[in-house]
Amino acid sequence: LLIAGCGGGKPVKVGIESNFRPFTYTENGENKGFEVDLWKAIAQKANLPYELVPMTQGELSKAVKSGQVDMAIAGMTVNKARKDNFAFSDPYFQTGLVLLTASDNEDIKSKDDLTGKVIGTKNGSTSYIYAGGIQGTKEVRGYPDISDAYTDLKNKKLDAVIFDERNVHHFLQNVGEGKVKMVGDVLNKESYAIVTKKQNKHLGRINGAIEALGKDGTYEALYVKWFGS
Ligand code: GLN
């Protein structure tokens, strides 16, 4: 049996996240998102059979480390600490962290206004580390699921949320409209890449596929599909 993206051999197990919209999420049992589409295109170009394994972000690094999955594509920001422990593909998305507060909040206009404030973000994320580095905050609360942080912000149980720009955008447009607002500049520039254990034998082919998808217009088409022009 020959199907697209299946070149024979043992399928690689690819960890994705169940709630990191619009990059990777599971809805009615279906895995969707920009990164799910991008991975499918990469696998087809690289001729890699695969199996998608959805989980939470907190579980993903552990699953890559333990070998439960061979790699993860889930908005994984490339940073020094992770590079010490893992390998990354070439980055495929440039973005950053942003600050969100209630629409009627008049005190918080930038990250310099967070003294004495309670900040929410996702456990194990680069935002959690970033927020922890801001001097004078009252508390940094880590949530396994970012949706719960957004809900607590809407209900005024948090003063602010710090998280990945595109996920915040998605939330603002779909659920948070009118109740929350983005303030200040992009806090930290970040780029996303596929994460694997060091010396993963597929990385070369994956990087080749990422480059080819950039050249043949596939990346652009997926970008427009998920983020608009
Ligand atoms: N980009 C952030 C990180 O790498 C968040 C990713 C995510 O929530 N999936 O930690």
Overview of the molecule:
This protein has 2 domains: 116 residues, Periplasmic binding protein-like II (D-Maltodextrin-Binding Protein, domain 2, 3-Layer(aba) Sandwich), CATH 3.40.190; 94 residues, Periplasmic binding protein-like II (D-Maltodextrin-Binding Protein, domain 2), CATH 3.40.190.10. Helix content is 34%, strand content 28%. The strands form 3 sheets. It has a 5-stranded mixed sheet, with helices on both faces. α1 packs across α7 and α1 runs antiparallel to α8. The N and C termini lie far apart (38 Å). The structure holds glutamine. The site of glutamine has 11 residues, from loops.
Q: Which word captures the global form?
A: globular
Output the CATH topology of the largest domain: D-Maltodextrin-Binding Protein, domain 2
Tally the helices: what do you get?
8
What's the CATH class label of the largest domain? Alpha Beta
